[in-house]
Amino acid sequence: MLPTVDIIIPQGGAAGHQQQGPGQQQAAPGSNVPAFLAKLWQMVNDPRTNDIISWSADGRSFVIHNQSAFAQTQLPYYYKHSNMSSFVRQLNMYDFHKVSWLVGFRPSR
After folding, report:
1. What is the pLDDT of residue 1?
2. So where are the chain's domains?
3. Beta carbons of 52 and 64 less than 8 angstroms apart
4. What is 32-54+75-97's CATH number, 3.10.150.10, 1.10.10.10, 1.10.10.1020, 3.30.450.20?
5. Three-state SS string across the chain, please?
């Protein structure tokens, strides 16, 4: 089975933008939130896709549960491409960090 991918949300929100976790409202249209981040929030916050991408239990990160399905369905719908590397590169531009773990394994802290 493929590993899940946790994406850690930057401290203080992405690139100076206010962090939005589960249950928080989406930025209003016309706000200064970049389109990439607004689409990301919509995607992670959509309960219909929780088997593919969802918030972590603590709400401080999101998890891509199925990278293949994510690249084939979610990326083309929201970003008009299916390139996972491009998506990760864009996340890195906003100071998100990818952390890969084996399924069912979390290191002790």
Report:
1. 44
2. 32-54+75-97
3. yes
4. 1.10.10.10
5. CCCEEEEECCCCCHHHCCCCCCCCCCCCCCCCCCHHHHHHHHHHHCHHHCCCEEECCCCCEEEECCHHHHHHHHHHHHHCCCCHHHHHHHHHHCCCEEEEECCCCCCCC
**Reported pTM:** 0.67
Q: Which residue numbers in the chain have pLDDT < 70?
A: 1-31, 100-109
- The reported pLDDT for the residue numbered 58 is 84
pLDDT tens digits for 34-62?
999 999 999 999 999 999 999 988 888 89
Give me the helices (H) in the chain, please.
Answer: 35-45, 67-69, 75-79, 84-93
